[in-house]
Amino acid sequence: MKWQSLWQNLRRAVDAECHCGYTDGGVVGGFAAFARSALIALRREAVDVPGPWGARLALWEGQLQYYRQQPIPERRHLVEQISQNLSALELALSPQLPVTPPSAIPSRPVELSGKAPTRTAPRRAASSHNAAVSPSGPDRPLSRSSAGPGTEIQFLRGVGPQRAALLKKLGIATVRDLLFHLPHRYIDRSRLMSIAQIRYPGDVTVAGVIRAYQQWNPRRGLAVIKGQIDDGSGLLPIVLFNRKHLPAKYPPGTAVVVSGKVEFRYGKAELLVEEMENQAEAGLHTNRIIPVYPATEGLNQRFLRGLYGQVLDKYAPSLIDPLPTPVAAKVKLPSLVEAVRQIHFPESLEAAEAGRRKVAFNEIFLLSTAWRYVRRQKQGRIEGVRHQPAREELQRFWSLLPYTLTGAQQRVISEIEADMEADRPMHRLLQGDVGAGKTVVAASAVVKAVASGYQAALMAPTEVLAEQHAINWQSLLANMAMPVAHLTGSMGRRRREEVLRGLADGSIPVVVGTHALLQKEVTFRRLGLVIIDEQHRFGVRQRAVLKGKSEAADLLVMTATPIPRTLAMTVYGDLDVSILDERPPGRRQVKTHHVGSDAWPRIYRLMRREVAAGHQAYVVCPAIEDSEESDLAAVEERYATLSRNVFPDLAVGILHGRLKKEEKAAVMERFYRGQLHILVATTVIEVGVDVPAATIMVIEGAERFGLAQLHQLRGRVGRGDAQSYCILVADKLSEEGRQRMRAMEASDDGFRLAEEDLKLRGPGEFLGTRQSGIPVFKAADLVRDADLMEMAKEWARHWSEQDPELEAPESRELARRVRETFHGLDLF
Ligand code: ADP
Ligand code: MG
User: Fold this and answer.
1) 130, 201, 229, 547: least surrounded by Cβ within 10 Å?
2) Compositionally biased, Low complexity: which spans (predicted)?
3) CB within 6 Å of ligand 1 — which residues?
4) Do residues 117 and 140 make contact, with C-beta atoms less than 8 angstroms apart?
């Protein structure tokens, strides 16, 4: 579907949703589901639109996922936000219209170069790369002329409106886009072979003279031309399929270079011609390492290569490397111009790869710098809370623990401590697999804050989780004489007012709660530390509201969703990341087995055995895409079977998204207290629930879950001392599905699995399911380029420390690109 109609449908849906009062009823089948799919489709269209549209759309997608769980004001806020941005989105997607000016980041006055440049063609401005929006200086060539890389592709020879439209599909609107459209592979046609040397089938390139042709029609509509080429060392039969025009272009007697595949038929070599060029002008399609580009229907490789032949020498030299020269001088990578040249006309495969790495380095460097810059603009001027070292209290706290901290816990705690002592507000993400021991890390930060005379607040996404945290923290901090209050939406008025008073006058140092903490009435005397658990359940805005209660407070976000290190920056760009990658010793591995559905009788026996031993079991039913109805049906069916037929003597509960909040809480509560033996549920139980007596997790239709989700679900068991089991029931498996099951059986290390998942599905899919906004990289390969990413990030950090405001002359192009490309990152 065209983006115009997608956009219009979305517009209508948004209006309807406003109209019906944010009940998710604006569209048949649900507004949120509809809008999400529209956004996903639009995101595809927006891939190459300048600005952070990809990230923004992805962010909304993510928020829409929990639309129904949100209170009405949150829904309204989201819908309004989308609504307000729709026009800008239309503008950004329209090739004919100028892009909205960067507004979010305070931009420095734009000095236009030279004498009053005439911006005659508004079409020009559509390309954000155009020099018209850039500051210029003495070292910047006046690339506003038609020879700049911002030139629209349509003005090239051989590119009319039709081909321009096709190129647009590939995300190519300007010459610059073309130059950064990278080949996805290469064919080595650089080495000429003499015909006498040809022994084996494979790709070859030979140079010789055409001897003769003869046409042959094996069946109607298929023309095969056979011929011969002679290079002095021998005669090689050649075959041209459907290339009727070639004999006329290269008649017998012409000296040509021919590339193609050699096959052997009845022991005789035969060359299936892929490319043929005149020897005099060979070098575009043959006789070199040939790039193969991601193409689209109607645009062939020859045409694309022809374009590069046309633009490279003319435009590439005026590309300006945004990498500051002092950094570029230290990093062992080719110059940008050289990199682009080697990417399209490589001297060797190594040179092409080096070129790609240079472009990838730039992408990562740019994004990383942008995050730092944006964050600085947002909070750089805020004087943060400076917490005390509080050595004594911390030592005492740790000495009272029944175990010693793992190396990873110690490392992460010191990272947090350093942030807390600094005068810049902390902004840190703590990633740790379930059971990694995040609680004690967070509690250490609380001890430090309270010992420094500040208050700390922890927000959890559900009442159940908040209660668990409250209980955990109360016992952890009891010895420290640090009372922990618990604030929920459902607590009595008297008690509630007591807590509010205590927070306001500072007599309560620590509070744990849900969204209830966000309410206006909740005020703190000296809030110094905000901790948010399971961040993906919270909107960015909620994070901001809680933080807003004290701008200077340090923020620690905890998540049990492991993201490979290489992706963390793209996903959590504005947060520093700490990783707890070592588990407390002595933890038993959850025994994990993949079985077919014929194994149910055995599963029932296992469940009965465990329940008899005083344990509990989860049975999770598959989420069927886009259909809450059948979702529900599956759970209800399994519940009926278990409660009526299989375990009529046991207490079986059911939990799904259609239940009211209180109903859900009540069911969880009963399971938590051991009043239910078996809980049949949809994935609503996914996050953070801790029932130590639960030892079996049965996942039905396991093929429908991604690795990350399977791992999350498995994390619900194995939390006590007893041996736990995870049974994956799946019948029809794709190859990838089989690998997923195998990975689950082999490992229960969340980070290992996340890496595996990333490899299996690639970053797009991996992040897609997580609904995170990520800016797209074209050259950087998040899997292969881990080392490069580290290096580029390190250099970005280094440079941002040297020139935080990007004011140095060496930062000029960098600053321009950061503002231009990432002016909306402030959404995060
Ligand atoms: P999560 O990261 O999932 O929040 P928790 O903080 O709940 O993990 O810790 C899981 C369990 O491990 C808790 O029972 C906790 O007491 C225990 N634990 C934490 N750190 C250690 C350690 N260093 N040694 C032994 N047990 C630990
Ligand atoms: Mg936890």
Assistant:
1) 201
2) 116-125
3) 403, 405-406, 409, 432, 434-440, 560, 584
4) no
